[in-house]
Design goal:
9-stranded mixed β-sheet; Peroxisomal Thiolase, Chain A, domain 1; alpha/beta; two-stranded antiparallel sheet; 316 residues; binds oxa(dethia)-CoA
Length: 316
């Protein structure tokens, strides 16, 4: 089986910065509560005139430049999102048009909520194995400020907007990313209604219940990926976690005794950006030189669906 490796990364970050003090003008909250309970100090929201398509295309363009890959080399483009500007055309079709990807590029969006980027990476590995062109664009992009319930202080302080992208290369010489993905279908504790009549399509989340799910899902995914790849924690160069709450990451780090130089948190800067959170981390790590050619990165995601996933991803 062909495997994939990351060749380049990029991100598109909205210009409007919303601080915790700004949030305290909307709901009864405080910088102290938000920072200690979540690790968030501010988040980015789309400014007037900006669209999530702009951010998605920017992230993809930067990832291509960073990889030294041209649009005509791309065989597939998958965007993980639940908040594309339009349902049709998909975000991926908009990227095709803006970047001039070849017309026979496979382009579609995928929704697995906060685990979406991992679902998209796995999907890309399967797609590129059957493609004549060996490069693919995997993007996570969200405009969560559009579906935020601004009357609910338990959720509105959490979410941010943004997009992150990677260019992956497929080769029979590469190991599979050994993606481990799962789902337990329930809308009890986390949902965005969407199609229900008369119900505003805003995020509903029972945070404490989701928190409990997350602290079990993260070690489960780490264990599954290590078992499937025959690796140990020491074999992993870097751990990338979905940025939902700094406390969830801290618990995992403590459990596996992961040294400080092997994990990263940027939730303070972005909040929870759902499908965009993992590629935003990967892109910053790559830019800072913390990961690069040969790095072996264990990626873990979890979220609505409920969904969860992990994979061991290498850099080319
Ligand atoms: O992206 C993947 C899916 N999402 C997650 O993984 C999110 C997981 N959950 C969480 O991150 C946390 O549960 C939250 C940050 C959402 C909430 O933190 P918590 O420690 O679970 O707080 P809580 O909901 O149990 O609320 C504790 C108290 C309550 O007050 P009382 O009833 O004890 O008086 C809330 O009303 O904190 C209150 N509260 C707030 N106070 C100030 C809730 N939100 C706020 C707020 N500011 N923004």
């Amino acid at each position: 089986m062909n495997g994939i490796k990351i060749r380049g990364t990029g991100r598109g970050v909205p210009s409007k910065v919303v601080t915790n003090a700004d949030m305290a003008k909307i709901v009864e909250t405080s910088d102290e509560w938000i920072t200690t309970r979540t690790g968030i100090s501010h988040r980015h929201h789309l400014a007037e005139g900006e669209t999530i398509t702009d951010m998605t295309v920017l992230a993809a363009r930067r990832a291509l430049e960073n990889a030294g890959v041209t649009p005509d080399q791309i065989g597939a483009c998958v965007v993980a999102t639940l908040t594309a500007d339009t349902q049709v055309p998909s975000a991926a079709c908009r990227v095709q048009r803006e970047l001039g990807l070849p017309h026979d590029t496979v382009c579609f969006d995928l929704n697995a909520a906060c685990t979406g980027f991992l679902y998209a990476l796995h999907t890309m590995e399967c797609l590129l194995g059957a493609s004549e062109r060996k490069f693919g664009l995997v993007i996570g992009a969200e405009n969560l400020s559009r579906i935020t319930n601004w009357a609910d202080r338990g959720t509105c302080i959490l979410f941010g907007d943004g997009a992150g992208a990677v260019v992956v290369e497929c080769s029979p010489a590469y190991e599979s990313i050994h993606a481990f993905l799962g789902c337990h279908g329930t809308d009890e504790m986390l949902r965005v209604p969407g199609v229900e009549k008369g119900v505003p399509s805003l995020v509903y989340m029972e945070g404490t219940k989701v928190f409990k799910f997350a602290v079990e899902a993260v070690p489960y995914c780490i264990d599954q990926v290590l078992a499937r790849t025959g690796k140990t924690v020491d074999d992993v160069d870097f751990f990338v976690f979905h940025q939902a709450n700094a406390r969830i990451i801290d618990l995992a780090v403590r459990k596996y005794r992961i040294p400080q130089e092997k994990y990263y948190k940027n939730i303070n800067e972005y909040g929870n950006t759902s499908a965009a959170s993992i590629p935003l981390v990967i892109s910053e790590l790559h830019e800072q030189g913390k990961v690069g050619p040969g790095s072996r990165v264990l990626v873990v995601g979890f979220g609505g669906g409920l969904t969860w996933g992990g994979a061991l991803v290498e850099f080319a």
